[in-house]
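Section 4.2 – Deliverable D4.2 (structural model, holo form)

The reporting period included a commitment to supply a predicted holo structure for the target in complex with Double cubane cluster. Inputs used:
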Amino acid sequence: MSNAAYKEMWEKLDLDVPAHDALLEVLGKFYGDIYMSQQGRLQGAEYLDFVLSEVHGLRIKEIQDAKAQGRKVVGSFCVFVPEELTLAADAVHVGLCAGADAGKEAAERIVPRNTCALIKSFVGFKLAKICPFTESCDMIVGETTCDGKKKAYEAFGEYVNMYVMEVPQCKNASDRDLFKSEILRYKAELETLTGKTIGVEELKRGIGIVNAKRKALQRLTALRAADPAPISGRDALLINQISFYDDPVRFTAKINELCDEIEKRIATGEGVAPKGTPRLMLAGCPMAVPNWKLPYVIESAGAVIVGEESCIGTRNTRDLVDEEAVAKATTMDELVDALTDRYMRIDCACFTPNDERLDNVTALARDVKAQGVIHYSLLFCQPYAHETFKVDKALAAAGVPMLAIETDYGMEDVEQLKTRVQAFIETLE
Ligand code: BJ8
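Output (structure tokens):
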């Protein structure tokens, strides 16, 4: 499809085309500098480059085609919104978290300045009319996780068809009951939106697709334990980011192919960085496209990132819906129980207490053989900033040093970050 045809599509979506063009230009340049400059990339990275180059083009065209066939599009901002159900209703599920400052000023007209960059970004993308995913959505699902998101959804809901799921803050039996009832409420909402009934078979299919996607990502995580590291942290992060945009079945097949290539690479002792390169793991807030600042800083300082403990990383992929329970299930109630159990294992910092996150961070650092962890909080993110101290203590007890970084989407602190990261790497050597 030509650029002119895409322009027509963007106009129909009521995007601000000049502002959107400017965003794509910056994105293209940023991608070129950060991704195309890497040495020793996998052949399978061509898929990543293609998806990213067409993220507002071909993928949006596919979504528009799906809409023309009567399918609905649901957007979300959190891994608590069960994609399994969206797919069971034959709807398209897309992630809307954004990782760029474009639209920040517009956002600050309806949310406070001291709101995290992730929230300002998705609000700004809507107000500045620069996100074709947001504009394609028939319904956008928010969730009551952190205060920033909860309150921002009230303002955001004046511009989009918003639906909010209640996510509990604790993990007692009553909280599980609450989330189960919220899953059922979401199911009913999807049925109203799509006019389709979600039956046992449909939900089993949805669970199968999402479990397969998570398994491919788990496979990738496990392969990253190899030294030399077979894939860069930048590419691995991009894979996790793309998992929220691309068609899930195609994505799974492509990532499994990429893992086959990685296995061959490991067998021949090949890697993206020499054996013995300092191995770091990221932990904390999610990094949405195109938030590649910190991974770039870390990997250009001579380390390699071998894992991401975040929602655009292992927090989203670590747990599957229990396959045995799904195979045995004959009723909707049994399937919803299996879904509830899986989702209540998510260790978001919005929970109190959230001690399982400490175990999960230390276990991942051990499994991927990280020599150090960089804990990343977005400025103004209270939940993750608070947990920085606990994570540091837990990692110290496990003998893994940690560096805490708080930043946003701006580029002003890049030099300062480089200095801090370099100094941290030197202590590891
Ligand atoms: S399950 S991490 S995706 S809520 S960075 S908006 S927490 S102030 S993103 Fe998240 Fe769901 Fe939790 Fe995951 Fe608030 Fe913090 Fe901003 Fe955040």
